[in-house]
Design brief:
Bacteriochlorophyll/chlorophyll a synthase, membrane, about 75% helix, UbiA_prenyltransferase, mainly alpha, 14 helices, Four Helix Bundle (Hemerythrin (Met), subunit A), UbiA_sf, Tetracycline Repressor, domain 2, 2 domains, about 300 residues
Length: about 300
């Protein structure tokens, strides 16, 4: 049965399939980055906890969930090859329900973003536009192994970090915060590249030129490791320059832990990529919070 036949087999989507469509497991990175932004602002999050809570919900379940729904709709034929049990190709979300869900969540994102003031709303506009630019034709930046992961990294890490800092400080964050947020967003390009390993077969057949497709898993993994490490070196040097040697040392130790995890990853990039997400990536995001704490002492 083709994808088109399957999506006509039902009239209403399954509730469990709708939850899987927006992939709760992917919500954590932007939620964490938003929290890092609020900490880096140098303002007590407890004093403005409604804005913190609303921003976390916006960054994770709403905007990130919307981006996942949009990606699944635009990738329904790719998923029929890579993951035929996904909600749309399996028929559990029939017809155009995947598209309607993504569009409805786009509107909801903007409504919630409006509650966060001009900085929060502006960032939400950018986030929604980036999500559709990544997945949808004719732009579909996902086709590029450089632009696609780069856009996702900046959207998942830099943008929510900037938003959290801007919302809590009610203005543009300091240049130090912007610099750090951009560095961690660039480093996340490597994390996104590792996530592309699971779609290798379908990407090859459908013309998605991810780095694992264009370079092969081994070379792509090496590139991803360097992309993750170099920005963290710049973070460490920046912290030292700003008089935060203890924080810089902590990030350095976490970076050395990642180097060890990378040595394991490079022995079997495709097989060890999920393992690295639970080890090296955990150390990466821990360094983000350490750095955010350092920025709070600078006034954000």
């Amino acid at each position: 049965m083709s994808v088109a036949d399957k999506i006509q087999a039902r009239s209403l989507p399954e509730p469990a399939a709708m939850l899987r469509l927006i992939k709760p497991i992917t919500w954590f990175p932007p939620m964490w980055a938003y929290l890092c932004g609020t900490i880096s602002a140098g303002v007590s999050p407890l004093d403005q906890w409604p804005l913190v809570l609303l921003g976390v919900v916006l960054a994770g379940p709403v905007v990130c969930g919307m981006s996942q729904a949009a990606n699944d709709w635009c990738d329904r034929h790719v998923d029929a090859i890579n993951e035929p049990d996904r909600p749309i190709p399996s028929g559990r979300i029939p017809g155009r329900w995947g598209l309607w869900i993504a569009l409805a969540m786009s509107v909801l994102s903007l409504v919630i973003g409006w509650q966060l003031g001009p900085w929060g709303f502006g960032a939400t506009l950018i986030g929604v536009a980036a999500a559709w630019a990544y997945s949808a034709e004719p732009v579909r930046l996902k086709r590029s192994g450089i632009l696609g992961p780069g856009l996702v990294g900046l959207s998942y890490e830099s943008l929510p970090w900037f938003t959290g800092a801007a919302v809590l400080s009610a203005g543009a964050p300091g240049w130090e915060t912007v610099w750090i947020a951009v560095l961690y967003g660039i480093g996340a390009h490597g994390i996104m590249t590792l996530n592309d390993f699971k779609a290798l077969q379908g990407d090859r057949q459908t013309g998605v030129n991810s780095l694992p497709v264009t370079l092969g898993p081994e070379r792509a993994a090496r590139v991803a490791c360097w992309v993750m490490l170099v920005p963290q070196v710049l973070v460490i040097l920046s912290l030292a320059e700003w008089g935060k040697p203890l924080h810089g040392t902590a990030v350095l130790l976490l970076g050395l832990g990642q180097v060890w995890a990378m040595s394991v990853l490079l022995k079997d990039p495709k097989g060890k990529a999920p393992w690295y997400n639970g080890t090296g990536v955990l150390m990466y995001i821990s360094g983000m919070m350490v750095t955010a704490t350092a920025l709070s002492g600078l006034g954000g």
